[in-house]
Amino acid sequence: MASWTADELARINAETYFTVGATLSDGTTPKTVDIWSVPVGDRIFIRSYNGTAGKWYGPALASGRGRISAGGVEKTVRFVAVPTDDEATNQAVDASFRTKYAGSPYAITMSEAPVRTNTLEVIPED
Q: Does the bond joining 114 to the residue before it have cis omega, within 30 degrees of 0?
């Protein structure tokens, strides 16, 4: 399994926004959305503010595949749902949202229910 390099992590995490597009069942990735992403160690996580009503989240859950772009890094990725009972990971992601986006009132919202139940880990494929 591929992992993020230190350079990729630094470049991605330096950016405010993370462009994500889910691969559809026909193999296309037609729409992208700019969202927040956060680091936890050498891992990257994203959350859907709108849950399955969001443009990208439902397709990302369905296919488990997509593309991301941030800080000049472009990758084909896998999306892996974080179980809601994985409290250690969810708490670490909560803290990362509150730290990275501390200047925004949405930082708290992104680290509370129901948004925190929409957590995906982003894993590079190449």
A: yes
Q: Is residue 1 part of a domain?
A: no
pTM of the model: 0.95
73 in Cβ contact with 11 (< 8 Å): yes
**So what's the pLDDT on residue 55?**
86
For residue 101, what are its two tokens?
């986006």
User: Residue ranges of the alpha helices (H) in the chain?
Assistant: 6-13, 57-63, 87-100, 106-109
Cα dihedral 107, 43, 124, 23 in deg (nearest 10): -30
Count of domains observed in the chain: 1
Q: Report the sign of the C-alpha dihedral through residues 32, 24, 69, 19, in that order.
A: positive
